[in-house]
Write the structure tokens for this entry.
Amino acid sequence: MGERCLRSFVKVSAPASIANFGPGFDTFGLALEEPKDIIELTMDVYETEIETVPDYSIPTKKNAAYAAASAVAWRNKAAVPFHMKITKGVRPGSGIGSSAASSVGAALAMAEAIEIKMKPEEIIQASSLGEKMASGSAHIDNVTAALLGGFTVVNSRNPISVFSIPPEDLPQFSVIVALPDIVLETRKSRSVLPKEIPLEDVVENLSLCSTMVHAIMQKDVSRIGNCLKDHVALPYRKSLVPGYDRVQKAALEAGALGFSLSGAGPAVFAVADSGGKEIAKAMENAFKAGGFKCQSFITRPGRGAEILEVG
Ligand code: HSE
């Protein structure tokens, strides 16, 4: 593509995210301040290669980032070889938007490298191809959160339309995430969902979603916690995360204001306005009591993907 490749190096960060945020299946998202993926894209190369650090041994053409970056390049008639180094802060398959962070970072970096102005909806569309490659489903809740930051809502999928309440307009709360040592692919976690959901469960979720958005606008953290329930996906998925009820009970007893599955799992999260360390410990111990190792961390809502360096 020669003349169009105006940048030889672009470095981008893209955050982890919590999809669904309780009741908003495939609709709500929350970007986290930490962890983040760092994507370094180099254009002056002869062969396309994507390496991950640490090395997760994902073949380049099976990497979500490849699908997202290639979609941006092809759409703009700029298919060229590239090298991408992805330093993974977000462990793949954990349920906190690992493929979304890589996809959004890759799409954004490619758009910057070929100096094409793309609308957020176009970056989201390209990034959704990364999600499709990783999980078989082009859901856009994680990628929207990873791109825009803050609390995000998908208000239409076709055409894509999304909005975000940025972190500075959100109330102050901690997000305590527990990552149990359980392998659960999003593909599997979606496959257990029925095609039809009982009407009364849908009605419950409509109430929860509406109240959640109001609680966020009102900066009412206790009601946000209260709305972290789900009658649509969680009932079918809970059994895939052994000890879910025990961990939830432990988190709430330790002072959490609410608790839910993060995206398709296996990660779970709690929100709190204080006592994050005790809640994290309680969640870890509850997983351990069921025989599962677990890591936890405390973070808060954060910004979306950012371009850090252009060369
Ligand atoms: N909304 C998606 C799901 C997120 O729950 O399957 C997957 O990370």
Notes: Residues 64 and 99 are 6 Å apart (CA to CA). The chain has a mean pLDDT of 95.
